[in-house]
Amino acid sequence: MEIAEGIEIVGLGIYVQNEQALIVSDLQLGYEEIMNRMGVLVPRFNYSEIKKSFESIFEELEARGVKEIGTVIINGDFKHEFGKILEQEWAEIIDTIAYLQKKCRKLVLVKGNHDVALEPIAKWKDVEFVDYVLLENGKTLVVHGDSLSFKEQLKKAERIIIGHEHPAVTIREGVKAETFKCFLKGKWKDRILIVLPSMNSMAIGNDVTKNKLLSPFLKKGVEEFEVWAVEDKPYYFGKIKDLE
Question: Do the beta carbons of residue 201 and residue 166 sit within 8 Å?
Fold first, then answer.
């Protein structure tokens, strides 16, 4: 399903056809260790579920005729702990890098607000670790979404792809209500803005129909954004204002 011209939703990621690029966001590896240290006893299944999600994405792309992925872009918050790399994070990051490098020609990590201590691992594993990625000759800007500091790139971009927000939406039918991860598409100024859901399987995300939004890209006009809720496949639900 296309969310924009030449950009397809696939699982919890998007595939940019012209660039043979798969983009996902907010894996937040090591989430459970942080919860355990806070005294919250949760089983450690985030990583295994993320691996399943990746396998499903690669199988779907292959079924669509994509024989080779040029680039996989992790659009920020690869890990969960802010200031250092914990034991669980270290093991899961190394394994994920090795896994994804077998699936594509190039792996790129975009720096998120949780990724302060990620650079040493990226250098060790010879993986690009950048503030943003420009695709389609600069027309598409891939950036985590926690900051508007990339002013020159924003001026030139026609489309912006962010994560950070972990968007989710609650669908109601009578007294029944369920919350789903979702993709959003709308406008930031005069640019197309696409917001990716989190790949973190420990939490659905931030309900955009009722909660305060975090990204500075989403401070105005979010009620006009279109919603694709994700379950077994993406489902189009119109604009946020209609769901509210």
Answer: no
Who's near 170: CB < 8 A, 6+ residues apart?
Answer: 177, 178, 179, 180, 207, 209, 210, 243
Q: Which residue from 48, 56, 52, 57 is spatially nearest to 29, judged by alpha carbons?
A: 48
Count of Cβ atoms closer than 10 Å to residue 59 Cβ: 12
Task: Render pLDDT for 17-43 as a digit per residue (tens, 0 to 9).
Answer: 999 999 999 998 876 666 656 676 666
Q: 152 vs 81, 94, 148, 220, CA distance in Å?
A: 30, 33, 10, 21
The Cα angle at residue 73 between residues 62 and 90, in degrees rounded to 5: 110
pTM of the model: 0.93
Structural contact between residues 108 and 74, judged by C-beta atoms closer than 8 angstroms: yes
With tokens 């993406």, the residue in question is 234
